[in-house]
């Protein structure tokens, strides 16, 4: 589904991504873990083309996407829920969702009903300003907005940060349903181990810009947790 080979990225002289190799399989939830500042968000932004790679190959559904503009990568089926949610505070909930429709190439121009089935609060608050929503409601809106384009992979950057437990549980259920009912792949950046363990099939751990361990989530060892994840 998504294959990353030899990816290097720099902020000026700072070597932020070091020879990253990753494979995210179709229909699986892949969790990217690691302490603050190791490069997780930079990796997502480089996959999307929001940041330039210095070298490396990124393939999505078997085709190179390295040279595509971000909007073309999104149109190919890469959905993104950025850290901090980035909803438009002055637009209504419905307008926030409609903004995403503009990225759709041909096809239906309606917001899929399924988004309101996953997140009923978005229908209840359709006319409210995005900025007036709680953090948990904004996160549901950010995920819903990414789903408007019916992506085949969803990149989620710390979706549970600052969110109350019942919404965290709802997000976990939505991730599991998207995978089991639609075969959606998910690349999740997550620092909270219980949440990662509850939703992910596979993991990779990053440290100082490099991937230092990968494997099946149920094989994540306590020694790796202690070495790379515990603060
Ligand atoms: N715009 C930027 N310019 C220069 N350096 C940056 C920039 N953005 C991030 N960095 C640096 O790049 C490194 C990786 O940051 P990144 O945000 O990708 O890490 P992260 O693993 O996602 O951490 P967090 O969990 O805190 O978001 C850090 O050292 C950070 O300070």
From TrEMBL:
Superkingdom of origin: Bacteria
Keyword Lipoprotein carried by entry: no
InterPro entries: AAA+_ATPase, ABC_transporter-like_ATP-bd, ABC_transptr_urea_ATP-bd_UrtE, BCAA_Transport_ATP-bd_LivF, P-loop_NTPase
Keyword Cell membrane (UniProt): no
PROSITE patterns xrefs: ABC_TRANSPORTER_2 (PS50893)
Domain ABC transporter: 2-231
MF annotations from Gene Ontology: ATP binding
Record key words, sorted: Amino-acid transport, ATP-binding, Nucleotide-binding, Transport
UniProt-listed Gene3D superfamilies: P-loop containing nucleotide triphosphate hydrolases
UniProt similarity note: Belongs to the ABC transporter superfamily.
Name of this protein: Urea ABC transporter ATP-binding subunit UrtE
